[in-house]
Amino acid sequence: xxxxxxxxxxxxxxxxxxxxxxxxxxxxxxxxxxxxxxxxxxxxxxxxxxxxxxxxxxxxxxxxxxxxxxxxxxxxxxxxxxxxxxxxxxxxxxxxxxxxxxxxxxxxxxxxxxxxxxxxxxxxxxxxxxxxxxxxxxxxxxxxxxxxxxxxxxxxxxxxxxxxxxxxxxxxxxxxxxxxxxxxxxxxxxxxxx
Length: 194
Ligand SMILES: [Fe+2]
What we know:
There is one protein chain. The protein is an alpha+beta fold. The protein has a single domain, classed as q2cbj1_9rhob like domain (Jelly Rolls). The protein is built from three helices and eleven strands; from the N terminus they run βαββαββββββββα. It has helices at residues 27-34, 61-77, 177-191; strands at residues 18-21, 38-40, 47-49, 85-94, 100-103, 109-116, 124-129, 135-140, 146-151, 156-158, 167-175. Strand 7 and strand 8 form a beta hairpin. It binds fe (ii) ion.
């Protein structure tokens, strides 16, 4: 017997999370990341590099190309149009006892490129809410060499790292090139005053 009540679906907002896998070695990029200076916001919270443009460093060139290619693919096939470029990028260092609290960024599509993930206890977790306000955790398992892209409107967090191995990840934001142009204009206006 078929379904009595027929249903039609419509998607009104795009919340697709996509994963890509980097096929090359990233030992040098990880070494470079380990040597960066890190800021610790609060005890127990993840540390993040002072450098907010790590993907524009020469050492990160190959990974930047990979990420931009994946971003282009996401824009074309998931968002079905537009243009996004990498804006801020940093490295997150999560040692034993540290976690990432729920947050969003100033971004359109966010990305995480994983260098080292100690175990399955530190997935990327999204707070999901349905139309009735019911919330649950949507856990995306992650591994070294994987890139996850997701819309910034999704609040996300990472549970405490209970492993002795440090979890290293590149985090980045993306914006429409027109927004970056606007920032450049604003930055050059204020830099004249200095
Ligand atoms: Fe984040």
